[in-house]
Structures are given as C-alpha cells and as structure tokens.
Amino acid sequence: MKAIWLLALHSAKARRVNLSITVMALALSSAMLLAVERVRSDARASFTQAVSGVDLVVGARTGSIQLVLYAVFRIGAATHNMRWDSYTALAEHPAVAWAVPISLGDNHRGFPVVGTTPAYFERLRYGDGRPLALAAGRPFTGSGDGLFEAVLGHEVARRLGYRLGEAIVLSHGMQDWGPQHGDKPFTVVGILAPTGTPVDRSVHISLPAMNALHLDWVGGAPLPGVSIPPELLRSWELQPKEITAVFVGLHQRSDVFRLQRHLHQWPHEPLLAAMPGIALDELWQVWTQVERALWAMSALAVLVGLSGMGATLLAGLEQRRREWAILRSLGAGPREIGVLVLLEGALVVMAGLAAGLLLLTLSAAAFAPLVQAHWGLVLSARLPSAHEWALLGLLLAIGLLASAAPAWRAWRHTLADGLTPR
Fold this sequence. Notes:
Elements: H1 2-14, H2 16-49, E1 56-60, H3 64-72, E2 82-83, H4 84-91, E3 96-108, E4 111-116, H5 119-123, E5 125-126, E6 130-131, E7 134-137, E8 149-152, H6 154-160, E9 167-168, E10 171-172, E11 186-192, E12 203-206, H7 207-213, E13 217-218, E14 221-222, H8 230-233, E15 242-243, E16 245-250, H9 256-264, E17 271-274, H10 276-319, H11 321-329, H12 334-375, H13 386-412, H14 415-419
Parallel strand pairs: 4-12, 8-11
Antiparallel strand pairs: 1-16, 1-17, 2-15, 3-4, 3-10, 3-16, 5-6, 7-11, 8-12, 9-11, 13-14
C-alpha cells in the first residue's frame, strides 16, 4: 500500500500544473465555506458574551432588537431618549437590584462615547460573568475637578496609542466628521482590560460630563458667541434630563416578566424593556436565512470544485492508458490501478482542503482587527472547531466520491486496451 501511495504522489507531482488549478479552486471554495461557518459561530459568540447578568435593557419604545443593538453593541442610533425621572423611578422599584444608565450620541475618532455612572464598571459583566477590570488607572469621578475624565476601552487605547494623562477631544454625533467639543478636552484616567466586546471600542465619560458638553449647543451645533468655560461648569448642577437606555439587574430573575409588563404600561412615557437573550434569539432567526443562503452558495462552489477535479481526472485517463498498460505489465492488477486513481483524487482533495484552511487562518489573522473595529465582531485565528473538522471530513468524503468514477474507469482498462490505444 505504501508503494501505491508513493506512486500516486509522484504521479500527481508529474501533472502538478493541471492539478494545481484544481487545488486552487478547492482551496478558495473550501475557505469560503469554512469562513461562513466561522463567522457564524464567532459572531454568535461575540454577541452572546457582550453582556452578562443584565436582566433587562430599558429604553424608549422601539423594537427590542434595535434597542439591544444600539444600547449594548453601539450599532445604529436611538430614535428617542427616555426621561431621567423614569430612570430614577425604575431604580427605586422593589424588584430592581441595580440600574445603570447610559447616554450615547458622541464619538472620538470613530469610537462611540458612552456617558454613564461609576456603577457601570462595577455592575456590568461579560462572557461567563466576568467583571470589567482596569488595566491601568482608575474610573472617572464625574464631579468637581474630575468632571472631564475619561476611561478608554482597550481597543481605543491600543489603536490610538493613548496613555494615562493624555488629553482627548470628543466630536458631536456618531460620525467622526461631526463638529468637535474642542473647548472641553477630557483627561484619560483609566484604560480597561480587553474583553472582546463593544466595551473595548468605547470611550466612557460621566453623565454630568456628557450634559456639560452640550449646555452651549442647540440643534447639534454650538450657539454662536456662547461658550461656557470648563472651570465654571464644575460648579453647576449637571444632572441630565434624558438618557438613552438603562441596564437593569433584578433581585430575582423570576420577576423579569412582571417588571417587563409594568414598564410596557409605564404611564409617564412609552418605554420598552427588552431581555437581551430573547432579543438576540430574534436576531438569529432573522440572520438564519442569510446564513443558509451564504452556506448554500459556498457549498455549491465546493461541489463545482470537486466536480472539476473529477472531470480533470477523467480527462487525463485517455492520456494515461499506456501508463496503465506498463503498470499492468509490471504486475499491477485492475484493483491497484483503480486504487491509484482514487488516492490521487484524495491527495488533490486533501491538498485543496489544507490550502483552504491555511487561507482561512491567514485571512482571519489579517482582517480580524478591521472586522472588530468596524463591526465589533471578534474573529479568532484558531484551530478548527469540532464542527469545522466534521465539515472538512464531509468534504473529503465527497471528494473521494468524486474520484470514484475515474477510478472505476481506470479499473476497467485492460492490458490489451493499453497496448492498442485508439
């Protein structure tokens, strides 16, 4: 059997120009199929681990998916805000253990700015319940001399090269080209440890600081001739009137549906209370159709590549009939010749799958920072998962099946057919 393997290897090497095209097609198609599977699994993992321990996300009345996307993942924008007195009433509800308000709307060089309270760093969890941790510095104080302090996510500090004590200027709106709050710079006092969640791509400031930035602004633009110096703002009452959303944790998870119904009937303003897990399930149901379409297209590309491999092997049989005759004259039987062609097909398929896996790994390592920066998805350059190995095994089995027809044709060739070619 070893001799047949070596013979198949040397035979494929002798026809490497033709077979390399087939290997390249299989590599591209298998890499695309594995990429769809990896993006699907990594996207679900990134979204699932982004928030942990939050029972409800409360905001102005909108869709639950939209609320979770912009409050947790900073995707999209809020259509309306909720009132501050609604937040305070919610925080005092007997079923609520803690409530963390957030306010969105500004950015720093393309990274979203989150206005919140110091409880944000104490209450929020990610992954399997791990708390946020500071890699350097401390949380902001949000009052007095510490009004204009900022805590950066790990990705913000890494990509922009910021260190503790540096001054940064925020921009108005969610787009990087918006007008800047240049008269009120912030000092970096803390840098968070990496989490693999949207927290890494966020700049965190206090709610009073967020309000202070916009006291001399109207309609998204600064008031002409009006500028309040930062030193005067530190002594003002800067409690916000509106916020974007509230993260809520309950004393007992069994109270979640009762509190949700209570908030949906809130008499002061229309509110929506979304459970993050259920909202993500709804998102996956929408995304499933796209996943199936992408997977079907990738699977079709793989089948086309495998069919091309089978056609290449079949086409080469006519040129190799004298080769089979020589092997038969040296003692090789029809079974050995059929196995030889089958092993050649297996080598081509394995080479294509290995090249596709290598291409996927290199692409993930190269484009993972770009994907994380723009869409917040963490793509891991890792070894294949159990499901991906099973998929590779299935592709190998289909490749062997595609090689069966050429192997059967070669098996049927006889010594006389090889010595008297047409």
